[in-house]
Specification:
Blueprint (H helix, E strand, L loop, with lengths): L14 E4 L5 H13 L4 E2 L10 H11 L2 E6 L1 H4 L2 H13 L3 E5 L10
Parallel strand pairs: 1-2, 1-3, 3-4
Helix pairs in contact: 2-4
């Protein structure tokens, strides 16, 4: 799927989006609506070429004003999503979970 807008790069407040790539089409229909309302959205396409992937994610989460987790059966079992959530929790970043499908979360989340 072609992304309808680039990941936010700048110094204003932004929302970090955590999702499973298996759910890209459904997630992007949702975050496109947010972006159209003027909300700055950062997702993993915002990782700079040549940058250390985990460091970039951590920096983006640390600098975000909100962590938006799209919950699906795919994201609930994703190691990448879990690590992002754990880091957001560790640093006290506000988290909103948006259920795109009925999903049981593991106890650790």
């Amino acid at each position: 799927m072609e992304k309808s807008f680039p990941a936010y790069q700048g110094t204003e407040q932004f929302v970090f989006v955590s999702y499973s790539h298996l759910d890209t089409e459904q997630v992007f229909s949702e975050i496109t609506l947010l972006a159209e309302q003027g909300i700055n959205i950062w997702y993993d396409e915002g990782i700079r070429p040549g940058a250390e992937w985990r460091d970039e994610l951590a920096l983006a989460i640390r600098n975000s004003s909100l962590f938006l987790f799209f919950v699906t059966p795919n994201s609930a079992v994703s190691d990448h999503c879990r690590k992002e959530i754990y880091f957001a929790l560790d640093i006290g970043c506000p988290i909103i979970a948006v259920y795109l499908q009925k999903t049981s979360l593991p106890d650790g989340i």
